[in-house]
Each structure stands twice: as C-alpha cells, then as structure tokens.
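note to self: dont lose this again. the chain is below, predicted strucutre after it. 549 aa total, dont forget to put it in the shared folder this time
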Amino acid sequence: MRNFKRGVAFAMAAVMTVSMTGVISADANEESSTISSWKEEAVITPTEGKLVGAGYINVKVNTSVTDAESYNIVFDGKKAVELEANGENEQMAEVYTTSIAKHTLKVEAVLASGETVESNERNFFVSKKGIALGEDMSKTVELKKMNLSWYYNWQATPYNNSIDDGVDFVPMIWGRNQDDPDGTKDENLFKYIAEQCALVPKDANYILGYNEPELSAQANISVVQAQKGWEEIQKLGKRTVSPAISNPNGTYSGWLTPFLKGGTVDYNGVQIEIEGVSCDCVAIHTYISQRSVSMVIDAVKKVHELYGKPVWITEMGIFGSKAYGDKFDYSYQKPGENEKTGAFIKEVCAQLDEMDFVERYAWFPYNINSANDIDSNDASGSTALFDYDSGKLTDNGFLYASLGNPKGYETYKLTDADKYVYEEPTTQQPPTTATPKVEETTTQVTPTTVVPVETTKAITIGKVKIKSAKATKKKSAKVTWKKVSGVKQYQVQYSLNKKFKKSKTKKTGKLSIVLSKLAGGKKYFVRVRGINGSDKGPWSKTKTFKTSK
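---
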C-alpha cells in the first residue's frame, strides 16, 4: 500500500506541474506554449523596429504570468523599472533616453519560487526629429517619408490619416478659443481648456502647453489664467511641456519665469504674489533672421540653465522679409538660398542631436512660395521641406529625411517620384477665338459622320459676402462672411493698399478667420473668395478695418 501511494503522488506531481501562466503542463521538462508566447509578446509597445521620440518613452508590458510576484523592465541591459504583480494582464511604465540609437527592452518575471523567467528582447529606435504641421499647411504630405519620430499640429487631436500614418502625435492645449467672442472671460477659457483636455488621446505620453501665451494674436493668456488652466492639464497624468514663448533668444523672464518659478505678477491691475507650477520640460521657439546655428544653441543652453529642465524646440525656422532688403531674402527661388538653408539645417540638427538635455525639436517649414498663408514672412521659402499642394519633398525635405536617424533604422526609401521640381512660371498666349474663313465651293461633298465634341460645363463659384471685418485686439482682426454653396475653402486677402499690392493671403475652411501680427494703428483692406481646388470664385466687395495703436 505504501508503494502505491508513492506512485500516485509521483504521477500527480507530473500531471499537476503548473506553468508560469497558470496553464497545466503534462511534462515538467517541456516549456508550455503559453510561456513561449509570453516571451515573444511580453513587451507590447514599443513595437519591433518602431521609431519613437526621445525623452520619456511609454512602455506597455504583458503581466499575465499567474505565479509571478513582480516584473523587471530591463532597458538596454539594465534594470530600469520594477512592477508589482497586481492581477492586471497589462501594465504601463516609462523609460528615459535622449540617445539617438537602437535600444532594447525585455521583461523579467520574478516568480514566487525566486526563479526568474526572461522574455525575448524587443528592439526599437529613438530620434529627436519632428515637425510642426498645421492643418492649413498640407493635406497631401506623408510625414513618414521624412523619418520623423513625432509631430504636432497645435491641436489636441491627431489627423489619423495618410498624413501622419506611422508617426507619433503629441497633443497641444493651444489656449483660448479664438472663435469665441467672449473668450476673454475666465469661465469660457477654463471651460474650453477642459473640453480640449477631454480630446487628448489616451496613449499620448506628453502634452504641449499653450502657444505663445504672451501674444495677443496667439494664446493671449495671463500667467494667473495659465496656471489655473494648468491644473486641468495636469489631471490628465501626462508628461507636460511648458508653454512656448515667442521670444527667440532665450530671455523669457516676462512670462515664463513667474509661471514656472513664481513671483510678482499683474492680475487685473493688481500686483499679486504667485508660486510656480511644475512641468517636465521647457519649450522654446527659435525663429531667427540669420542662419546662425550659434544663436539657436545659445538660446537652448540659456533656457536649460535658467529653468533646469530638458528642452523641446517646438518651432524652429528662419524668417526672411523682402522689406529688409536682399540680405534677408531667403526665398526658395533665389539662387543659392536653398543650399545655404540646407547647410544651416544640417549643422543645427547635428548639434541638437548631441545635446543630452535636448529631448526633441520640430522644424517649421514655410511653403515654397513664402508669400504664403501662414504669416507676413514673405522671403522664407528656402525653409520649405515640401510643397503644400502636392506634398512632394524639396531638396531640403530630402535632407531633413536623412538627418537624425539612429544607426540601423530602416529609413523610408525616397525616389524621384517623391521629389518636388520647381517650374518657372511661363507666359502663355491666349488661344485665338477668330472664326476661320470658309471658302465657298460647288464641289459635291459626301456626307461624313460627325463626331460630337464633349464639352465641360464651367464650374461657377458664387461671390462671397463679407458680414464683418473689425479689429479685435492690438494688431489683430476678425473677418466673417456668409457661406457660399458648394465651396469647401475660402481665400482671404488683406493689404494696407486698396489695390492689394504687397498683399497677404490665408486659406480656411471656416466662415471666419483671425488675422494676426498686423501693423498697429493702420487701415487694412480685406476681401474674400471661394475656392475649390484650382477653381476660384470672384472676390467679394472690399471691406476695411483699422487696428488699434
């Protein structure tokens, strides 16, 4: 009887051997298929070969091993995070790096017995390179062609189409609602910020703060308002990037210093003392009127030293204006300018890539014809990375695609079909409309079959009627108009000249637009027309408004 019991016990030990995921295995020496599957899929994100942005990186891991007490996330061969088993099948964690390289992740499941089971390694790549792309800049460019690890669009939601396919999105809480005439009221502002926060994607790891809040034509938020709105942003539990100030040289004491460090500020005409708020990194805009790499690097260093935080450059570019003479004309069509701008891009990216406290940077590309729909910088076309209409990349777009890529990363293979080719405008002679002279003849002509000529009915776009055009705040104005049937976009043209010489234009799909960065105390002329692709309607009647001094 004793021997029988012993045999039964041995058999039960073999049958009841439990795998590390709770699945019973009939053979203690053969690893279950479930464990093999866990080893393959222990790291859920980043996916194999993925290009991700530098800084804090979201890692999702499989924590479904039944008899595990904890999990170690091993990053580049070193234990980076320890997670307690909590009964969930998946858990999130973070790792940090600004090293542009191939990186590895694996998970160690630490069992109750003290044994450790290791997953397979997951390889992914890190880059700092990104781009700023507003919705009016292109509907055709494919960002993955430039090997970008991230992008943003001044909005809380991504495009989720072919534009951003495969490129990570960073949401922004821009500021106030420009379409709200009562947007200056605190309750409206905070309600709008809360509404935007609700739109932020759940899987975003960073969130960008307000856009140039010190400017009346941009977010236009006081420090006190901004701090209160920041409380709503922090509720999301994301890594935060500070508001970005417009000043390009790193001197941010007027707005950002009290926002982050506290101090005395003006609030509704009263001087009050405030404390600073926390953020994970500081954003900077660096538009310069010279192709000076040192100016950009010095600004980045100054901001880092002042606030002791990692730095993001969320807008980086060169602005040129023909109004200041040939020296500041960086037009795409001007011989040699594209090459000079390309040399600047190459050098500044190389230096930023080497700076460990710089987490990310985003180039701001003007359109090829830089008398464009963005702002008044009418000689910045050599900064173009792509043609807004076709989405094809310029020479500098090809260059940007080649920069900042980790060794071993499989970059997008660009071809001649991706390249933009500039064509000089040609003057065409209008076709003749004269009726050919027909000679009379008495010769009998055999009737022939007449082939009907297909005609296309001309597309007629109705005339726009402007409802109002008035200055709203210093150096800005709002124009509204009535909807024209069948029109998807409108072109707004404005100028200081009633004949619209040296005019500027903007496009929008809405029935209103805010014109910013205007000259103070000046009379402006404005008109609007509907456009559908290459078809354009007639201009509206001209309206005028005067900006405040």
